[in-house]
Amino acid sequence: MLDHLLSLAIWVPIIAGIIVALVGSNGARANIARWVALVGAIAGFLVTLPLFSGFDRLNGGMQFVEFASWIPALGLNYHLGVDGISVLFVILNAFTTILVVMAGWQVIQKQPAQYFAAFLIMSGLINGAFAALDAILFYVFFEGMLIPMYLIIGVWGGARRVYASIKFFLYTLLGSLLMLVALVYLSRMAGSFAILDMQAIPQIAQTTQILIFIAFFMSFAVKVPMWPVHTWLPDAHVEAPTGGSMVLAAITLKIGAYGFLRFILPIVPDAARFFAPVIIVLSLIAVVYVGMVALVQTDMKKLVAYSSISHMGFVTLGMFLFVNGYLNDWGLKGAIMQMISHGFVSAAMFMCIGVMYDRMHTRNIADYGGVVNTMPKFAAFMMLFAMANAGLPATSGFIGEFMVIMGATEYNFWVGMLAATTLIFGAAYTLWMYKRVIFGAIANEEVRQLKDVNGRELLILSILAAAVLGMGIYPEPFIAVVHQAANTLIEQVAQSKI
């Protein structure tokens, strides 16, 4: 069974999702569906734990590799494997899926079986995208996961859910078509669709690299999302149910950034160097300008959505810091740490907003005030997550930001200084929201009637708090897993330098 851990990570949640959908939502079956979904999510997480415990931290290559012929006539294979970069995202995705099922336990009354089934199936597809070593297999998983998220937003979302779901789908789909063209072209050069073979292609002409870079960039930049192709994200977050926002921010955005690490940097490194100044500028705009945009938001979800764009700007900044022509060690590893941390913190922030929305049915900051008087336990948890979102030391939010700022300063002092402004803007918009919502006198009777977190909500927030504090206080286990794989990527890029 240890030989097929990645297949289990993919297919256990997918099969569980199908079973949940078959159970249905009629009458007493709805509760059965909820329990089956929870068991499926927990099983999906448990099968990923040996990936972490059995991972060889001194090996920078692919581990837990699986290979089987898929469509021989087309040269397509069911080829899976993870390195120190992708293994953490598989585990993070499975971890988040459990929380999402718990978050929607009582809240989702409309077709709960189909709701949970969509998340479980999407969880398996996302794991497939992180584990795929065949380019077309990656593309199938990459595109396939759009369908459950489209349904989650479009069926269980807010008043403008149809508009948001269509915008989300079209933005991400159109960018991906260019990626497919690039993958087919690279397969002709490599002689196969294996991603590792594509990375091993002898020096590709600079002009060709630039064209391939543009094709990949159009797909992955939308997914991150980078400024200025970010406008679909605030709409999607605002309209999505709480679970949809948690997965969207914690996991799906990371697949775009993962694409930079798996395809762009190792396959077209010279084009990455050529475009690095442009990416750095776009990333700094996301960090500074989008941080300012977050400051003026009146909707809590939209504020945190813009916060996510700003934090993901840190990720792309760290990935494209080339010092003396070589990838920056601090920046690259910091970007990966920031992706993991953002998964915890963003999920926690959206969960907190969901807790309040379930009680008040409004996300407007002005409708709150004095929540600490009626929900003291909740206020304490939200304070921790707000501080993590602002990058407070001893929380996970500090680790990646500190490393990227170190790398940016090594690249250029002024770039480092601009990157560091995220600590100012992050504190400004997050604490401003927290102050208006939580502190002060009770604003209205609805706030006065609020009940503090129940057992289910307390468990979810406690798990997220443990993750945020655990990574912030002792990040070494995460860095140790990433270290060798990041060094291998740096060597790949360095060796191809012309």
UniProtKB/TrEMBL annotation:
Pfam families membership: Oxidored_q5_N, Proton_antipo_M
Membrane-topology annotation of the record: Multi-pass membrane protein
Keyword Transmembrane helix carried by entry: yes
EC number of the protein: 1.6.5.11
Protein's name in the database: NADH-quinone oxidoreductase subunit M
UniProtKB keywords: Membrane, NAD, Oxidoreductase, Translocase, Transmembrane, Transmembrane helix
Family in the record: Belongs to the complex I subunit 4 family.
Gene Ontology MF, one: oxidoreductase activity
Annotated InterPro entries: NADH4_N, NADH_Q_OxRdtase_chainM/4, NADH_UbQ_OxRdtase, ND/Mrp_TM
Subcellular location: Endomembrane system; Membrane
Domain of life: Bacteria
Domain (NADH:quinone oxidoreductase/Mrp antiporter transmembrane) ranges: 132-422
Keyword set includes Nucleus: no
Membrane-spanning parts: 6-23, 35-55, 84-105, 112-130, 136-156, 168-187, 207-226, 247-268, 274-296, 303-323, 335-357, 378-399, 411-432, 458-474
NCBIfam families found in the cross-reference section: NDH_I_M, PRK05846.1-3, PRK05846.1-5
Domain NADH:ubiquinone oxidoreductase chain 4 N-terminal residues, every copy: 72-125
